Amino acid sequence: MSSRLRVFFIDNAVAILILLLIAFAIPVAKLPASFLAQEILMRLGRDTFLVLALLLPIMAGMGLNFGMVLGAMAGQLGLIFISDWGIVGIPGLLLAMIISLPISVCLGWVCGSIMNRAKGREMVTGFILAFFMNGIYMMIVLYAMGSIIPIFNPELLLSRGYGIRNVVGLDGVRQSFDNLIPLHVAGLKIPVFSYLLIAAGAGLLIWFRRTKLGQDMRAVGQDRAVSGAAGIPVERTRILAIMISTVLAGIGQVIFLQNLGTINTTSSHEQIGMFSIAALLIGGASVTKASIPNVIVGVILFHLLFLVSPMAGKNLIGSGMLGEYFRQFVSYGVIALALVLYEWKRVTRENDARATLRAGGAA
Amino acid sequence: MSARSLFQRSCVLAGLVALSAFLFYIGKGHTLLIDTNAVTLDGKEFSCADSVSVSIDGHEPESMGRAERTMVQVGGPRHTITIEAGDQKLEQRFSVPTFLDPALVSVPAILGGAPRRYWIGKFTAPPAEETPVEQMQQQDSPAPEAPKP
């Protein structure tokens, strides 16, 4: 019983730690319950799709896809284009998603191909690749747009005549998905259509897992060598996992930014990977195993902590900035803790297997 | 890649391009300048009542006087304008060409029953008043230096 309890605590260490922090911070923050509920409902609609994008690479054994930032960049490019062309409302958002599709597919293919050359080190490869692609993204947005790529709306351009301004307002599409099906329950606004999109994404993933390709991904995630011997095209399957993840991240970024209503051209995408991964890990997922309930629980807990930590910091120390630093600390700390636990469990499992083998040999 | 696969992918691509074009058409935003200035069309003058209430697509009606102009942001090509002038209430549908922006909507033309082609027009900004060259030079010249002690 004690060993089962120990395993439970080790497996859910991140979620338990965050729950304890939240349990401590909520009474200190003294925020109204209605405010917290409203914010969580909005943030659930805003972020969940992005976190869903992380599931397939985990299933394919490629760990946490830090390369999802590439998809977020594609989504942002789509939104910049529709802002320039003046496309508003739902058609604007759908068009932004369609524009992001080919960009996401190409970036996903590049990312997957590079990860195939760095098997076993996919996470750090994705992380560094995101930095590299960020440079190319900046070059496109700050130099090519307005000079090589035509931009018709002068309000989007920097005063020098080329390059996109640091902040692009999405007034024409702001909260278009959230307000499409208006529903108020007990004074709380519920973004029904965003939830429907998330449900569609989750349904698609559940269906996909049952397809031949989904089964192949699961097999590749469990053992690459055996999958290869069984005739599964391992490298192609891994590339497809990353490509689908990147496409979903692009769509997720459009949903995310329509809720915010502005694009921070140079930095909106940068933190997406880190925050989404931290949310997933807080939900009880690990580097090798993640599910849709992990996504939903993770987004709720992560944002609950995000909401209460600044006010808790202000009430405790007298400075709201402590909470801001705490957010960063939690995001990075959770990822670090999950990675350490994963590695520790792997080493423990290998040692146990070795000990069992030796014991068997001695007998 | 087999011919069938190539065909299927081409169909998907063509479908996406067609969907994009459709979304562009139905989602293009327009700036409408609702105008109550009198207009002369085919030799006939159309003028507006002293006070009208104009609403686009059922939004909050805006009260306008004679020879006024107000700006409305809309999305998509088809819209409904509701004009109330005294006891008269008129509701008409109109279309805005995709690449016409900003578009001038003539309330007198709609109220007076002018042909539809006159309802929407291209807005041309009036030329900026030219500043006399001498005045510009005077403005550009540096401020006179203070006398040195």
Q: What features would you highlight for this structure?
A:
heterodimer, A: mainly alpha, ABC transporter involved in vitamin B12 uptake, BtuC, two-stranded antiparallel sheet, 14 helices, B: 149 residues, alpha+beta, 4-stranded antiparallel sheet, 26% helix
According to DSSP, the number of beta strands of chain B is 10
Briefly note the CATH topology name of the domain at 29-122 in chain B.
Answer: Immunoglobulin-like
Strand order of the largest sheet of chain A: 1-4
Q: Residue ranges of chain B: pLDDT <50 for 5 or more in a row?
A: none
Please state how the strands of the largest beta sheet of chain B are arranged side by side.
6-1-9-10
Helix coverage percent of chain B: 25-40%
Q: Mean of residue pLDDT of chain A?
A: 91
Amino- and carboxy-terminal Cα gap of chain A: 28 Å
| Quaternary organization | heterodimer
Question: What is the CATH top level name of the domain at 29-122 in chain B?
Answer: Mainly Beta
Strand content of chain B: 35-45%
Supply the number of helical segments of chain A: 14
CATH class of chain A equals Mainly Alpha
Note down, in words, how this protein is organized.
With 363 residues, chain A is mainly α. Chain A has a single domain (10-347), classed as Orthogonal Bundle (ABC transporter involved in vitamin B12 uptake, BtuC), CATH 1.10.3470. Chain A has helices at 2-11, 13-29, 33-52, 55-59, 68-85, 89-116, 122-144, 192-210, 212-222, 224-229, 234-260, 272-282, 292-317, 321-362; strands at 167-169, 184-185, 188-189, 262-264. The model of chain A has no long low-confidence stretch (mean pLDDT 91). By secondary structure, chain B is of the alpha+beta class. Helix content of chain B is 26%, strand content 36%. Chain B is built from three helices and ten strands, in the order αβββββββββαβα. A four-stranded mixed β-sheet of chain B has the order 6-1-9-10. A four-stranded antiparallel β-sheet of chain B has the order 5-4-7-8. A two-stranded antiparallel sheet of chain B has the order 2-3. Chain B is elongated. Chain B starts with a helix and ends in a 9-residue tail after the last helix.
